[in-house]
Amino acid sequence: MSDNGDLKASIGPVLGRVPSGVSILVAGDGEGNTTGMLASWVQQASFEPPMLTVAVNAKRYLNGWLEKSPEVVLNLLGESQASYLGHFGKGFEPDEEAFEGVATATAANGLPALAEALGHLSGRVVSKLETGDHVVYAVEIIGGAAGPDLTTSKPFVHVRKSGFNY
Q1: What is the CB neighbour count within 10 angstroms for residue 13?
Q2: pLDDT digits over 30-61, tens only?
Q3: Contact assessment for residue 42 and residue 20, using Cβ atoms and an 8 Å cutoff
Q4: How distant is the alpha carbon of residue 148 from its chain centre?
Q5: Is the dihedral of CA 89, 84, 98, 30 positive or negative?
Q6: Which of 12, 14, 107, 136 is disulfide-compatible with 162, CB 3.0–4.6 A?
Q7: Rounded to an integer, what distance in angstroms lies between the CA atom of residue 144 and that of residue 34?
Q8: Inter-residue contact 103 to 158 (CB < 8 Å)
């Protein structure tokens, strides 16, 4: 390949077809503030102990929060829950209420979990890897619960046109 443009043109459509589940990642700042963000780069990473990885854009303030308070909740969305995309996809400022109008429960680690999600997994960040424009966190799962539609709904899966943008 002669340049980065050629590379993007040739691998972009293929890379974009790598499917990913759509989730809402919840974290707190350790001082009582919480937020949620749309996360689509999530993958199970270990059986024992149960772990997953999640990628967060390196520019997000959430990275600083995770340094101070490494607890998270990952809420898995179902196909019928596209309304969460609009709500959480826009992002929130650090002092902005992220869960207004959204039914929540309290996860095992004390953070909000979406009551209508297919289910949620609560965990603790145990390591991180800086990978270009994202930071990948390894999260050890310490708890979780099924939502009301876990066995009757399909997970929301995201496939992109290009692997170079969301």
Answers
A1: 14
A2: 999 999 999 999 999 999 999 999 999 999 99
A3: yes
A4: 20
A5: negative
A6: 12
A7: 18
A8: no
Distance CA 33, CA 20 (A): 28
Location of structure tokens 């990473």: 45
Residues of the chain falling short of pLDDT 70: 1-2
Residue 85, φ and ψ in degrees, nearest 5: -60, -45
How many C-beta neighbours within 10 Å does residue 44 have?
A: 12
Distance separating alpha carbons of residues 104 and 88, to the nearest angstrom: 14
CA distances from 115 to 92, 155, 162, 165 (A): 20, 15, 32, 30
- The CATH fold of domain 20-147: Pnp Oxidase; Chain A (2.30.110)
Question: In terms of Cα–Cα distance, which of 108, 50, 104, 38 is closest to 76?
Answer: 38
Q: 14 to each of 9, 43, 101, how far by Cα in Å?
A: 10, 19, 38
In one-letter notation, the amino acid at residue 55 is A
